Amino acid sequence: MGFKLTVDGPDKIDLGIEHILSVQFEMDTPNDSNARSTDVGTTLVIRGKILTAIGGEAADSTLSLAKWSVVPAEAADSYRNLVISVISAEQVVRQINFPNAFVVDYMEDFGNTEGIGEFTLRVKQKKDKISSVKLEGGYGM
Predict the structure, then answer these.
(1) pTM, rounded to two decimals
(2) Which residues contact residue 95 at a Cβ distance below 8 angstroms, ignoring those fewer than 6 apart?
(3) Are 109 and 23 in contact (CB under 8 A)?
(4) In contact, 2 and 20? CB cutoff 8 Å
(5) Residue 66 and residue 59: Cα distance in Å, rounded?
(6) 89 bridge partner residues
(7) Residue 53: is its pLDDT beyond 60?
(8) Cα(117)–Cα(107) distance, rounded to whole angstroms?
(9) Could you tell me if 44 and 82 are in contact, meaning their C-beta atoms sit under 8 angstroms apart?
(10) Using H for helix, E for strand and C for coil, what is the string for 37-93?
(11) With contact defined as beta carbons under 8 Å apart, do 81 and 97 qualify?
């Protein structure tokens, strides 16, 4: 299974199968609700590797993720269009689109033995735009 991430913004972010380790989709409603709540939130947690550019290859887009995470809330580009695809055997198992995604948490972890770093990106869809979230899948690439 593999994953592809695309984020549209001033710097287009493209991360592929070699970068992303796991994706977690969460839909959250208040725990004290006795019926289907209108207070719904959606979150994606994406974990991956920060790869070093060697031999003249281009740097990966993880630096752009870090830069997006520090964009102030007042800036228009703090909200971006994010698409994550879950791929298995040349089939798109799931494609999730957050058209108004914003960064909640971003972490990078580097060690001196692995030779690569790891990142964790937590994004949410803007709450008043939840109806714009698209969940698709079950088709070929």
Answers:
(1) 0.89
(2) 83, 84, 85, 86, 134, 135, 136, 137
(3) no
(4) yes
(5) 14
(6) none
(7) yes
(8) 10
(9) yes
(10) CCCCEEEEEEEEEECCCCCCCCCCCHHHHHHHHCCCCCCHHHCEEEEEEEEECCEEE
(11) yes
Q: Is 138 left (phi over 0), alpha (psi -120 to 50) or beta?
A: left
Q: Which amino acid is at 74?
A: E
Q: What is the pLDDT of residue 47?
A: 97
Residue for token digits 């040349």?
90
Query: Is the CB of residue 136 less than 8 Å from the CB of residue 72?
Result: no
Helix, coil or strand: residue 132: helix
pLDDT tens-digit map of 85-116:
999 998 999 999 999 999 999 999 988 776 68
Burial label, 72 (beta-carbon count in 10 A; 0-12, 13-18, 19+): exposed
